[in-house]
Amino acid sequence: MTIQRRTMLKGLAAAGVAGAAAPFEMAAPALAQGAPFKIGLMTVKTGPLAQGGIQMEQGLLTFLKEKNNTLAGRKVELVVADTGGNPAGAKTKAQELVEREKVNVILGPLAAFELLAITDYILQTKTPLVAVAAAEDVTQRKANPYIIRPTTTSAQCCHVMADYALKELKFRRAATISEDFAFGHEQMGGFQRVFEEGGGKVVKKLWPPLVTPDYTPFIAQIGNVDVVFSGFAGSNPVKFMRAYADLGLHGKTPLMGGWTFLDDALLKSLGDEALGVLSGATYSATYESESNKRFVAAMQKDYSSLPGGYASGMYIGGMCVESALALAGDKSSDGTAFAEVLHKIKMEDTPRGPFTIDHLGNAVGAVFVRRCERKDGQLVNTVIKTYPNVSQFWTYPEDEFLKSPVYTRDFPVSKNLEN
Amino acid sequence: MNLWLVLAINSVTLGGLLFLLSAGFSLIFGLMRIPNLMHGSFFMLGAYMGSAFLKQGLGFWPAALASAIGMAVLGGLVERLLLRRLAGQELAQVLLTLGMSFIIADACLMIWTGDPIQPATPPDLRGAVTTAGLVFPIYRIAIVGVAVAMAVALWLLIDRTRIGAMIRAGVDDAPIARVVGIKVSQLFTLVFCLGAALAAFAGVVGSPYLSIYPGLDAEMLPLALIVVILGGAGSLLGALLGSFIIGFLYNFGQALFPDLAYVILFVPMVLVLVLRPQGLFGRAAL
């Protein structure tokens, strides 16, 4: 694999262009019909978040290769920007993509704090954006009309897992453990709300810092529960599951988690400690659709890796752009019109199956409950139940859901904690 | 209670790993006065190299040794070709080692991609000790054994050999050591190689339970820094004691006051810096 590094020019250029007069208003009319449609990918290719970031790029490249760089009859051009995985970098790269590269649409970024750092700028510059980052409020209480998210909010899959734990597995006592940051809080909050409203009790909530070399002190506190629900992301699940097994809990207290906890792309880094772990995701590499078969085969061939949520998120993001291009036609270069069309797309054959976009910009589609198993020596996430048409509001009415505050460490309020 | 026992045992095992990590850092800092910000990178690169050797079919301990030797060579090159030119310029050295740590991190990302790697535990040390409802992995207890053996070996080297005497002389007062005919410059290279090798060894030994992933370097470096500041630069006993103190603070801090885990880790460092800047076992600067 090669990593192409863009030169230092970009920083200078972005600064230079920012000084010039009203650069982006000119962009749309100046584009002649037939000029390539420019896609800017914001990803992370350096630093600790690079694993997911590299997969995002691979997913999008796979899609564009399959389409021969032509979407809905129009040539597309891809500009890739490496944000470095931090908010300041995301802001700089968003400016560079919009003002210097004059992209028509942005795909990405990876992390919630990156998306939050640029959402105001996206609104100001009227740039359509197709996100993977999960930050709830971007499609909820502070919905941005220029952003759609064809993947999932933080809690969307966790609502489902709570329902499954209660109804199918009859679990009643749960402990939650996740990183102490917004993505973790929102995931655990979603699980806790549905689990407790359905009669379960979350008796322990553990919040290790994002950087935790050894999870033993936390695992030792879990105590007597039916299930441990986790929202770890990045490489943390690998460390966590090994420590969990080392302390003799694997096979004793079942583990469940959100999509990042056991992403398909993580399977090759894991061993027996992952067997039996349940995870909820909007994508499964084993999903039987035509486009997914093509996608998985191409990823195996070109990158010899199994695609997970990040790669599929961008492949599907590319499909959304294609659909919107077909619908918007001549108006594709107008940011506002294109963003409006993005909200109206109805996707049929995608690697995650059919889905639509709700009026706030988030996907409504299937969520899969998957169990990690060993087949022919390889770990796979087998889908054991599919919840169709899951919205970001779960089964709650939208207005009621939006009236309560966004999920945090302290919301929903915990009444059942034990020491 | 079960929890406390697990925490106590885990504190000791983490302390063992931290000693392996920070002994080299302490020697380099003590003798050469170089705050080597590459130390975490040596740890991570060593772990990656170890995993590559394991993939080639080497056994676990030979892989750890091979990785240590490889890193000693790399460390020697860095010292001879880069750091040497900046002798005495602390700021330049800090910036150089910081820059190198970024380069190493991105090189690792390119070679090993971002996917986390988790080498298997050595076959003889798999499984867990189960007593009185308490389960604890054998491998982690073995790490303590390795750390103690390493501590004894290093102590013998520093305290009982001629080279050790020369290193001690260099740590105490490099100019005078030069005057009496000790080739301090060669010592520098030797100690830097040794420090790098120790970090790589620790990386391989720690990898079955820490796993290897981009960012591991930045997680380990502050821990080495705290241990050495607490224990005193250049003091092996200080590094040993500092490691176990941090091991206990880390485990009990995270369990009892998870919100303050890092405060608890850094407060002793601040106190030591204020009250006893040379560290618990370091000697005051001359």
Written description of the protein model:
The complex is a heterodimer of chains A (419) and B (286). Helix content of chain A is 36%, strand content 19%. Chain A contains 13 helices and 15 strands. In chain A, strands 7, 8, 9, 10, 11, 12, 13, 14 and 15 form a 9-stranded mixed β-sheet that branches. A 6-stranded mixed β-sheet of chain A has the order 2-3-1-4-5-6. In chain A, strand 2 (70-71) and strand 3 (74-82) form a beta hairpin. In chain A, helix 3 (50-66) crosses helix 10 (290-303), helix 4 runs parallel beside helix 5 and helix 11 crosses helix 12 (335-342). Chain A is globular, with a radius of gyration of 21 Å. Chain B is mainly α. Chain B has 11 helices and 2 strands; from the N terminus they run ααααββααααααα. Chain B has helices at residues 2-32, 39-55, 60-81, 90-112, 138-160, 162-172, 174-179, 184-210, 216-231, 236-256, 261-275, and strands spanning 128-131, 134-137. A two-stranded antiparallel sheet of chain B has the order 1-2. In chain B, a hairpin with a 2-residue loop joins strand 1 (128-131) and strand 2 (134-137). In chain B, helix 1 runs antiparallel to helix 8, helix 5 (138-160) crosses helix 6 (162-172) and helix 10 (236-256) runs antiparallel to helix 11 (261-275). The longest helix of chain B is centred in the N-terminal third of the chain and has 31 residues, at 2-32. Chain B starts with a helix and ends in an 11-residue tail after the last helix.
